[in-house]
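quick one, 230 residues, struct below
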Amino acid sequence: TFSPDGQVVYWGGEYSTKTIYTRRLAAGDWTPASIIYFSEDMRSYRDPFISPDGERLYFISDDALPGESSSGKENIWMMEKEGEGWGTPQPLPDLINAYRLHWTISVAANYNLYFSANEADIYISRYLDGNYTEPVLLDPPVNTDELEITPNIAPDESYLLFTRVATKSDPPYLFISYAIGSGWSEPQRIENIDYCISPIVTPDRQYVIYMSSPYSLAWRDTTFINELWP
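---
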């Protein structure tokens, strides 16, 4: 995930490392990767996502929630921008963190939160009057009997990128659905991407970066977004 100006990038390491790395663009080159900790009291960090305005950073952690001594599940946390850094991490409300598996997180410009959970469906929690609402499933045809995971919402919520998997033994494919008057359009598969998990669109909306295998990243341009628009 990138800062809005594209000058800073954060990404999660292998799942077992519970580590977030960062690099910064300086004098036309990227600085060496470094591990970042957002709190002295937390050591578990995964799946970062920066809001489109750059004012919030969301991530997943299985560290204990405030007031608890241990945690048996992952929860979504959020920090707000303070100067050049980030404020104290705070967990999102229980009505969101009651869900199992939030992999991964995406936030629109209005802070509406999209995530995949439970039996691998995509949920939305709307941000109204400074609070998150009870998450609800996105309507069909986005969610189906197959597995829908790792959503990435456009800042204006005009389209949604996500991964769909027929079964856990099948390859994951990239799909796109568009916001239409009646809800969401029939998702279309991006045919020339053979494997995709966790699509992330760069701040200029020109490129999509995604996991092209369990251990590698790839990218392509986003011309298909306009080409497939219904």
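The two ends are 28 Å apart (CA to CA).
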